[in-house]
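for ur thesis appendix - Regulatory protein. copy paste whatever u need, i formatted it the way the template wanted (i think)
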Amino acid sequence: MGQFTIETAEGKLSFLPKSKITQILGVLLVQNGETVRVDTLIEELWGEDVPRSALTTLQTYVYHARRMFAKMPEGKGLLLTRPSGYAVDVADDAIDIKVFERLVGQARRQLHAGQPEAAIESVDRAVALWRGPVLAGMPLGRVLDAHVTYLDEFRFSATELWVAASRRLGRDREVVPRLRLLVAENPLNESLHAQLIRSLHRCGRRAEALEAYRNLWRILDRELGVEPAPELQLLQHELLATGSGHAPPRMAL
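the 3d part is after this line
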């Protein structure tokens, strides 16, 4: 994922230019195999400023998209006209977005089945498909923007799966840098802060774990005027008790 490209069976890459045509293809590909209604495509292209010639112009764009596909091996017939709109129907394995979704779903099932090593491998393969922001450089209307937001959130959930699988294997030292990045990108997510604090503690970095808690407290106080959740306050007390000669705390993972 990244800039919109098409790779032929011979391995030739075509970097599609920023245009209304690629915008249409983007909508059709993220909904591969499904009929995308004409009014949906018109909304994507023009939003609320729909010209009178919108339908005719859309048909012209589709015509040029077909001509572009026709120049590629096995490209003829990929863009279909259906009663209420248009569709692109290719194998899901040929679309990075679909492969990414499949691999993340596979990782989630593997983790639930007690296979953290396999889950990590699936997530790594999924994340390797990212080569930059989704549909970088392409104009985005409401429809594509919603899909980009969904994929960004899906990528976040993939990273959470990687962290969970790694922590289950006791790889807290490997997890800490990733958690620090996630916390920086999602400063109000208390669950991420809690995982970072626990991982630091399990690595024997108690002072850093306490500082991570204080950092969370400052963020929540400044942004929302609230204190950390009770379970996080309890976690802080357990960290403090660890250094006072009491028995080490039992931490839920």
